[in-house]
Amino acid sequence: MRRPANAPTRRRRGPWVRLALLLMLLLYGVPLLWILITSLKSNVEIFANQASVIFKPTLHAYQQIAASGSLGTAMVNSLIIAGGTTLLTTFLGVLTAYGLARYRSQLIWWILGFLILLQMVPQTAEIIPLYHIFAVTGLVNTRLSVVLADSALLLPFAILILRPFFRNIPIEIEEAAAIDGASRLRTFLSVVTPLALNGIVTEAALVFIIAWGEFLYAISLLSNPGDYPVSAVLSQEIGAYNVSWPGLMALAAVGSLPILIVFLMAQRRLASGLSLGAVK
Amino acid sequence: MTAALPAGRRRWRGRHTVLAFVLPGLLYLLLLGLYPLVNLVQMSLSDVTARNIASSAWSLVGLHNFSRVLASPSFAATVPNTLIFVAIVFVLGMAGGLAGAVALESPGWLSQVVLGLMVFIWAMPPVVLGGIWKFILLPQGLANAVAGWFGVNHASDPILWLVWRPFALLSVAVVNGWAIIPFGTLVYRAALMDVPKEILEAAAIDGASPWQQFLRIKFPILRPVTLILAVLTLVYAFRSFDFIYVMTYGGPGVSTSTVPFYSYLESFAQFRFGLGAAVAVLTVLVVAVLSVVYVRATRGAEGG
Q: Do A231 and B127 lie within an 8 Å CB cutoff?
C-alpha cells in the first residue's frame, strides 16, 4: 500500500485554506505594495487623497532623494555598520560555536544559558550602560561604537544558530585529519569550516539583515546625522513634522534594496535559519 | 570508553584546546554583554544624569531611584500597557503563526508566493514596516478608506488609530503581532514538516478526518516547539522597541509606552539615566526568568 515518497498525499486544498492564503497575501503584500505606490506619488496627490490607487506615477520623490546626496552617505554608513557587524560577529561566532559544539561538560548549559539571557536582554537596557562605556572610552559618535554594540547584540544569536551546524559534523572526520598529522587549527580551517559553510552563510545573512535594520544603538551612540545608517535616518524622518511621505517611502524602498538582494540570494537559508529560532 | 582511546585521540576529545576557540567570543560578551549589565545595576543605584554620564564619578543614592520610579504615575501606567501589549502580540503571533503554517502546508504556487512574502517581511527593516503602517493608519490613510468601504466610519469622521488612547496601544500591538506572525509561521512550518507522513497516511486510511489528524497527531508533536516559540514570542513582545518608537514614540502621553520603552525615554529623552537604569534593571529581571524557562524547554527538546 505504500506510495512513492514524493507522491502527493493530500487532497485538493479546501476553500478555507485558499481563503487563508489569500488573506495572508493581502495582509503582507499590500503594505509592501503601498510603500512602492506611495513613493511614486506626488506630495499634491498625497495631500488630496492618501488612499488613491489611480494616479499619475512620478519619479519625483526618487529624484529628490538622489539630488539631496544624503542617501548615498547613509547607504555607505549602513554598509560599514552592517558589513562590519557581520564580519566581526561571524568571525567570533564561528570560533565560539565550534568550541561549544566540541566541548563536553555540564558547564556547557551555563554558557548556553548565559548566551540565551544575553539574547533576551532588551536593547533598551544594554544601551544605557553601553552609552556610558563608549563615552568614557571616547568611542561615542564613531560608527565603530555601533559596530561593537551591534556585534555584542548579535553574537549570542550567531553562536546559537551556528552551534548545531558544527555539532552535525562527525568528530571522526576531525580525528582522521589529526591522525594524518593536522593540527587542531589546521583541521578547523581546512576540514570543519568548509563542512559548516552552509550554516555560516545562513548566520551571516541573518546577522546582516538584523544589523541593517538596527537603529536604536545608532541613534543613541551617534549624534552627527552624517554618520547615520539608513535605518536611523528613516527613524528620525518618520517622526518629523510635515513628513514628505513619497520621499520617505522612496528612501525606504531604496534603503531596503540590500535586504531584497540578500533575500533573493538566500531565501531558502533564511527560512531554515528562522525555523532555528532566529527571532529579531 | 575514553580510556580505550589512544593518547592523541583522547587529547582531541579533551576540553583544553577547545577552550581556546571559545575564549575570544566569550571574552567579548563578558566585556560588552555582561559587564554593561553590572554597570547598569551600578547606575540604577547612583545619581546619573546627562552631566556625569561620560564620567564614572557617580554618587550612590541607594534604592532612591527605584522608590522614585515605583511612585511615579507614568511608570504605573506602563505596567498595564506592557501586559496588554504583550498579550496581544503573543496571541496574534502564536495563533497566526500556527494558522499560517497549517495554511502553507497545502502545495501550490500560492503557498510558495505567500511563504516567500513572509520571509521577506521578516527580513525588512522594522523601521520601514512601522513607517508604512503609520502612513496607512493616518486619518486619511488606507485603513480608514477600507473601514469606509465596510461602512464603519465616514471620511469626515476618521478613526484616529494612533491618537485615541485605547486605540493607539491596540494599533501598535496589532502591527507588532502582524510583524511576528511570519516568524511563528516558519517555526511551526518546519515542525509540521517533521511530522512523519506514514503516520498521517495510516490515520487517513483508518478514516481520521483532517481535524482529527491535527488534534491527535500533529498537535502533540508540536507541543515542545510551541513552548520554545511561546517564550521567544513573549520576549520579542516584551523587548519591542522599533515599532513603538516609529509609530507613536510611546505617546500620546505614555499610553503606548511599555516598561522597556519607558526606560529608554527616561534615559535618552529625559536624560535621567539613573532612573532609566532602575527601570531597565526591572526589565532584565523579567527576561532572566523567561530565559530560565527557555533553557529548560530547549534542554528537554535537545535531550542533553
A: yes
